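User: Round two. Same drill as before: sequence, then structure, for each protein.

Assistant: Same drill it is. First protein:
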Amino acid sequence: MQRLKMPNNTNKMNANGAATTVLKPANNNLAAIAGTLASMRFLESQNLKAYLGKDYNKSVVAFSETCNAARNISSEVRKKHALQSLLKAVAEGDEEFAKKIVTSRPELILVSAGTATDLSGREINGLTPLQAAICAGDVDMVSMITAVLQQKLEDRKTLCFDPGIEIHRQVAAIYPDGIDAVDAQQQTKAQEFNNSVLLNILNIINAATEQQVEFELNNPRENNPDSPLNVSLHNFRAQFTTTSNEETIFNPYYLLAALEFYSDQYGADNDTWNRADLFWRQIVGYVQRYLPACYLQAQADDDFPIRETLTRRVFSVEHNPHAQLRLVDGDLDDLGYRWAYNTCGGITRGPRPGGSLEPQTDNSLRINTTRFRNLILTKKSALENLSSLAEAATSSRLSLGQ
């Protein structure tokens, strides 16, 4: 981008013959900005916002590169833009980009003024980037941030805070009564979800006619107010969306409950194939829509089972390249409508591992929930270890008077 030339001062004779200094703008753009800055504070300038266009943050960043004065004036806006970018990277599981921002601006993990939207449409606000990763169960992101901050300790001038103290403080703010207490509460809520919501929708599916079930399988997004099944499925989606969006800390036990409930109810009865198929796609699958990015990435890894630690930050499923566990124009494709992800590996349109649409015998509808349970336990254990390490480091430095 070509730099704007700074104004030149020129002397001009006034009517009395005295010399006066006149500001001569190098171009109209800089003159317009200078006039705006003279009349009101930069960050609160509605005129400047209109002048710079719809993408205000990016425009200010570009403007700040024109000269040192502009850089200084726009520093707060540039900080806000960096914070928004970091929160977005955390919410979308973009660990590589998040690392670049944390490395260059580690102080941003102290700030909770940003907002972002995760892949499910859930709004993130009132959380620091580190807390957003903690609440999503993204222990890989938390580990990365922790590692970057620990490296910064070698140069005290680069940090205005103690990483150990700050990490411990932020974890404690999310879990004031401890991680185990929140985990127990989440399991209780999941059990209530199992006993009320899942049981209710199961009864409605089983009471529906075969024609109604086939309509939902073939027309998953259409409204049919004359069908109790259609109305109930729409209500289930609205209810679970509200439940998910109201919780700050992601609750993985909802999906575990749905997986186990499905396996218990449909594991050995192939006479209810279409009903099992409907429950799998539109109940289990819809709960999967609200998984944070790190959980989706764990399921999309092409090493067959759900990964307990991430080896790749991807959303595409290698053995089914048409299935993307990824937002497409604000929607998660057909996940929760036409298909769900199988914990034994693979995208399945029907309920049986491997995606076959033909009924089988010998408990073929049963699924393996162990891997997903292990993923939950692994993440919980990793978060506890990170919290303990931060607390130990804090105690050590305080005892040494550092």
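Second protein:
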Amino acid sequence: MFEYFMIVGPIKAIKTNTKTRKWQNALFSSQICKKITSTSYFMSKLTKALRQPKNLGIALGLLTILLGWLMPANFVEQWYSRGLFLGIRTMFRALDGWLPFAGVYLLLAGLLIWLGWRARLLFRKSERTWGQRILRALHALLGFAGLVVFLFQWLWGFNYGRVPLEHQMGISPHPLTVDELRNELLIATTEAVRSRQGLEIGEDTVVAKQKIVPNAEDLMRQELRAVLKQYKYPNPNGVRGRTIVPKGILLRFSTAGVYLPFTGEGHVDAGLHYLQLPFVLAHEMSHAYGHGDEGTCNFLAYLSCIHANDPYINYIGHLYYWRYVASEFRAMSPEAYEQFRKALPAGIRADVRAINEEMDKYPDILPELRDAAYNTYLQSQGIAEGMKNYDRVTMLVAAWRQKYGSKQD
């Protein structure tokens, strides 16, 4: 009997365990099938959702923002700014070359057509309630916004994340103290006065418009390319700097120019004084060469002007920079600035007055709203100081002068 239990007992146990394992395997297989089925179901739903352009636009925008946060500066510099972006510039050169006018006009026309089409869909007769119509319109707007973000970043915006210019040039800019800023103002004034003395003009009269080259775009592109080449930056030909009308369309928002990644062109307001135009053209074309930082573009525009062989362009660069330094110094020490300004040569005061009078023709529209919106945009691109980034040119010039001298050949 004992032997029976010793033999039969384990056999029954084996049979019982076998049945249990079969039941467990069946249950496990069922769970796996459910997971596979649920995953497949989710992927099919996701694929179906992304087939709608609105959802696809939202997804592309969100993924692009995430990618921008994740990419390190060295990666952006090597693979985007010095890689993919150069191919994009080649594409824009082919597209912009045959257009006799700024591409922004075509862009605006397309935007107006799209808005009209969406408005027609919103107000046409439909069985949907107004709540459903508004939700669909908001859905379409989000999809459009996502697509705009996607195109903006891939066509140009990733350049905000590249290695800062000062690192590649080996200079160390720092915020200037009041004393350092006063010294920088003295240097800027000396250089502006010396530059103006070489012009064929009276000591107390405004520089005549006829003295400025008629096609400043070509000259400033040439000078800017020379600067970029000198500091080992890509400098393909064909970048455009367009003048747009009506006058004041940008100036009324305290903006002298703008670069649009969707057209690949820089734009300057036709209402600018002719003593501002070459500098602003160089600034906007610096954006077109892949530089997002505003202070960096001001710095490149300054170098392009002061290295120019044309003495009037040279003076414009010194004068524009003087106005930046003077503005900062006035904010930090108003009384000292007023005393300093009274001692300026009459010719420089006349030129500055002429520029200010021209700008007064285009008073700001909603300046607080504009400043808040632009500050938010710059900060979203990693420029923590917002609009104050424009004034970073004083730090860059001071650091550059310390390393290279007042004018590097």
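The chain has three domains: 1-50, 53-161, 165-404.

User: Perfect.
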